[in-house]
Amino acid sequence: MTFAAKLSKIYPFGFLRSHPSKTHAIPASFIQASQCVEEERAPHYNPRHFYPMQLHAVIANRYQVAAKLGWGTSSTVWLARDLYQWRWLPSRYVAIKVNANNYTSKECAQKELRITQRITQANTADEGRYFVRTLLDSFDLPGPHGNHICMVFDPLYEPLWMLKQRFQGGVLPPNVLSAVIRMVVMGLHYLHTQCHVIHTDLKSDNILMAFRDHSVLDGVVRDEIEDPLPQKISDDRTIYLSRNDFGFQASNLGRPVITDFGLSVCGDKAPHNHPIQPNGFRAPEVIIGASWDYSVDIWNLGALIWELLCGTGPFDYSTSSSDSTYSEEKHLASIISLIGPPARGYARTRKSKFAIF
Fold first, then answer.
1. 279 or 207, which is more confident
2. Which of the following is catalytic: 140, 201, 205, 323?
3. N or C: which end of the chain has fewer CB within 10 A?
4. What are the residue ranges spanned by the domains of the chain?
5. Superfamily of domain 1-155+212-244
6. What is the DSSP pairing of strand 253-258 with strand 197-198?
7. For position 323, what pLDDT does the model report?
């Protein structure tokens, strides 16, 4: 059965939808087998856990994979063309996050999917929803070693950490920062009041600028065909390099969008007290091991604003949660030296592990 015939059975008027492009890609150069690249550099990497994606393949009977956008410790992200788009309209592109299928990663992916669905469905009329990444589609992708949870989103331009590097001194000018943060606050308000979700991990990696004009992605797809990046061929898969620098055109820079809800929690459930947030951005109640709520995102945002404006955060600590030099005591001392001591009995009333106040 042809793809058009399959599509017509799945979707009304399928014969009027886009067809997979017939690619005649120029052969790519090869990366040495001994060199670790992309997701292979993730801690505890196991190829059985990652889906062996192939460029130009059609997945879920709908999306033709066009380029790799990025990778993480438990997922890869791909640019794909949506074949449900009408044939006479410009190509419509999506970003597909393909999660690893080992137990821990799959459990986290299921949780992230539930939270993202909650965010997507909460209140479509709220203006703050425009500044939060919402789900277009989701599906299970069968692989040689089990199913992979896939989430489909609109592609985004670049994260705030990359945007700030484009300005003098590697910081956002106050007028740019003011506009960006105003919209981020609207997105946070939507998360807190409409979705009842606490993000817990606000950093410049997790706020991305949107495209105003998605036609730039046509060039990404064309480049991958005409000038492919080097590839690493192994026994059962090809490891591709990511295309995630789209160049900079101020006219194509859209709104900021809060992303990555893998560590988010529901704020309307039992009190939370587990460790969260990048080290330098931790709220006081998180540092002392007390219960916390929506306010931790506001503290986190304040520290992020400082970093975007000044180049470094207000507290001289790495944002990495694995930083062995991080000290809770020193962090608390830094906070007290900057804004003064907490109210008397603060730690005791919050059932803190510290008894210093």
1. 207
2. 201
3. N
4. 1-155+212-244, 157-210+269-357
5. Phosphorylase Kinase; domain 1 (3.30.200.20)
6. unpaired
7. 63
